[in-house]
């Protein structure tokens, strides 16, 4: 490898040195030998035939006087590049316990992952890969491994690695020499400090990004027991306080200290930006991007909402982590069998028919069909029960699509800093979407919420800001048979500008929290509508986005009965008492017991992962109505709940798509 420095013979007692275009004159007793040794040192060539003391003298002179020479010469070194003549063999490199540096180039990502037969402990690496040089963190027995680092790199760059060939074949050129020198300097610093940080040096614009590297779920090197079981959890007594539009056992600042570490160039969350400024309301809305392997299906972009900048930012990170943890990593404990086989074996197993299956689904279910099952906990009995993996993991990506039985959705996925927080939020979300689906598909007339006497200053300030910006709120109380308040909000832009209508829903044990959630979700969705409308050429022919445009353009037939009218019944929000206990377990069990009395189970699968501290769950309440895109999944609750509440049921469910 060439350096930015080179020695030249001049005369019997002088040699010349050129460093970065500058010429230096050096006095020496033997200039010819000095030039020969110095250039071999710079080229990392074999020096075993030269006097050791003389080699050390020249080496010390170089390191003391020339910046370009302060490289890997102070450390043991290995490279798969044959240009490095003084490189240790791979066997010797792995066997040495001293601190050391390695450099790998001309390898594909898959080849880098398996280059060493074991973790190269006590080392820092430089990986020349595609459009960057990666300087690794210090590898120790307790650190992440090289395979995890490369997998994080792949998932952070899905546009590059969306084809299998880019995973398995080398497709890049080696870096210029000055970048190698920069990388070696960074590597030596990481080695000296035993740093947990990695650096990404761009070959294109020479920028340097600093990042942390988390071990990745399912890695057999980093985790001794990598099998993920989803029913090995308990619910503890944990107090909480109301914060913004939710409840937390930690302060916002404590929570953010944990969540922010998930966001970095090679992290589970690779991007986080505030984009509320796209809307003239200029209310804080965040967007996050989850890392993912482009060879697998994924929905990487997520939004965050809240009454203020801080809560919205936290929400966006949490949403991305929720989807990250719920992925199908491949290390999940899964049983493949038919429902009939499991029942014959005496297993406690959920009947998939209770999940309201779509009879027109292209991969139909039958009791004899072998499918994948994962464990869950029945929160009333705390017994383990097997449930279809298709209903838990998101995205569920089996090797054969025939293993699927239902369309995938995110209802009941929730995350938090502890499992109790996640479970409560997951239960509330299932109840919220059940209520919205039943009221919307039946076009039920819900009570209009009167909010004049609410004492919550943050909530009333938000409503006041919207009114000042000519945005009218239609707040509806969606009464159900659960001890949970569900609120629906339609926002109407009275200026007539797009989007004229948007909406949101919220569920909570406190009416003010439910209202806040519904309003902030509407604000977030409004921003998404604006962004989609600004790029309508990409979305206008996609039926998935039909509701975004129809609501935004003011099509009242899509909004239906969710608007308030003077003849609608009303209810004062201030008279709806707070049902929360300020204890997660008490709140959870209160809802679970109430649902059990109505013959509904609450099933929870723990999707929390070992590679991050964010708790994530999937909550399933079999028999509750889903907000499915096909409109074909109708539960008994679609008619039984309105009848229970004394409301009129439509003969034919409303045929407009859900807006979510």
Automatic annotation (TrEMBL):
Residues 304-660 form the YcaO domain. It holds the Pfam family YcaO. Signal peptide: none annotated. InterPro entries: YcaO-like_dom. This is YcaO domain-containing protein. It comes from Bacillus cereus. The lineage of its organism: Bacteria, Bacillati, Bacillota, Bacilli, Bacillales.
């Amino acid at each position: 490898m060439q350096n930015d420095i080179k020695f030249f013979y001049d005369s019997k007692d002088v040699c010349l040195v050129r460093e970065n275009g500058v010429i230096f004159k050096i006095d020496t007793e033997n200039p010819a030998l000095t030039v020969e040794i110095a250039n071999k040192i710079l080229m990392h060539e074999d020096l075993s035939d030269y006097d050791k003391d003389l080699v050390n003298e020249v080496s010390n002179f170089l390191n003391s006087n020339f910046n370009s020479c302060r490289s890997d010469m102070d450390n043991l070194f290995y490279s798969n590049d044959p240009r490095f003549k003084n490189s240790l063999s791979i066997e010797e490199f792995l066997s040495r316990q001293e601190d050391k540096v390695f450099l790998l180039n001309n390898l594909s990502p898959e080849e880098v992952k398996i280059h060493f037969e074991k973790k190269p402990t006590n080392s820092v690496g430089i990986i020349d890969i595609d459009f960057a040089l990666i300087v690794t963190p210090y590898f120790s027995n307790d650190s992440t491994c090289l395979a995890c680092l490369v997998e994080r790199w792949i998932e952070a760059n899905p546009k590059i690695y969306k084809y299998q060939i880019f995973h398995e074949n080398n497709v890049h050129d080696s870096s210029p020499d000055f970048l190698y020198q920069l990388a070696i300097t960074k590597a030596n610093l990481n080695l000296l400090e035993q740093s947990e940080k990695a650096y990404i040096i761009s070959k294109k614009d020479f920028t340097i990004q600093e990042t942390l590297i988390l071990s990745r779920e399912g890695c057999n090197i980093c985790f001794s027991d990598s099998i993920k079981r989803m029913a090995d959890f308990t619910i503890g007594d944990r107090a909480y306080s109301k914060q913004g539009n939710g409840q937390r056992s930690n302060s916002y600042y404590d929570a953010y200290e944990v969540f922010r570490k998930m966001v970095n160039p090679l992290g589970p969350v690779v991007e986080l930006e505030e984009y509320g400024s796209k809307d003239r309301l200029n209310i804080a809305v965040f967007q996050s991007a989850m890392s993912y392997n482009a060879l697998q299906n994924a929905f990487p972009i997520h939004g965050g909402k809240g009454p203020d900048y801080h809560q919205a930012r936290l929400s966006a990170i949490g949403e991305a982590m929720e989807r990250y943890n719920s992925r199908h990593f491949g290390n999940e404990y899964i049983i493949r069998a038919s429902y009939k086989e499991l029942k014959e074996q005496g297993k406690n197993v959920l009947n998939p028919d209770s999940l309201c299956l779509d009879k027109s689904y292209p991969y139909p279910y039958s009791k004899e069909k072998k499918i994948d099952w994962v464990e869950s906990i029945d929160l009333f009995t705390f017994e383990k029960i097997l449930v279809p993996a298709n209903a838990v993991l998101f995205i569920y990506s089996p090797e054969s699509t025939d293993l699927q039985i239902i369309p995938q959705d995110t209802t009941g996925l929730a995350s938090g800093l502890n499992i109790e927080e996640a479970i409560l939020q997951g239960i509330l979300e299932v109840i919220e979407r059940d209520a919205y689906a039943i009221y919307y598909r039946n076009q039920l007339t819900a009570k209009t919420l009167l909010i004049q006497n609410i004492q919550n200053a943050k909530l009333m300030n938000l409503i006041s800001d919207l009114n000042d910006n000519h945005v009218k709120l239609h707040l509806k109380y969606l009464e159900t048979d659960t001890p949970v308040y569900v609120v629906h909000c339609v926002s109407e832009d009275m200026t007539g500008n797009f989007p004229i209508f948007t909406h949101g829903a919220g569920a909570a044990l406190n009416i003010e929290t439910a209202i806040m959630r519904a309003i902030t979700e509407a604000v977030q969705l409004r921003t998404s509508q604006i962004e989609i409308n600004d790029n309508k050429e990409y979305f206008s022919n996609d039926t998935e986005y039909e509701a975004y445009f129809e609501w935004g353009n003011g099509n009242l037939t899509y909004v239906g009965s969710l608007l308030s009218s003077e003849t609608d019944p009303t209810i004062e929000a201030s008279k709806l008492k707070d049902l929360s206990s300020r204890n997660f377990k008490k709140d959870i069990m209160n809802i679970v017991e109430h649902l059990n009395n109505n013959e509904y189970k609450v099933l929870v699968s723990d999707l929390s992962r070992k590679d991050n501290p964010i708790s994530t769950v999937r909550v399933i309440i079999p028999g509750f109505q889903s907000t499915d895109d096909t409109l074909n999944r109708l539960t008994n609750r679609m008619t039984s709940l309105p009848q229970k509440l004394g409301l009129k049921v439509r003969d034919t469910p409303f045929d407009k798509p859900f807006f979510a």
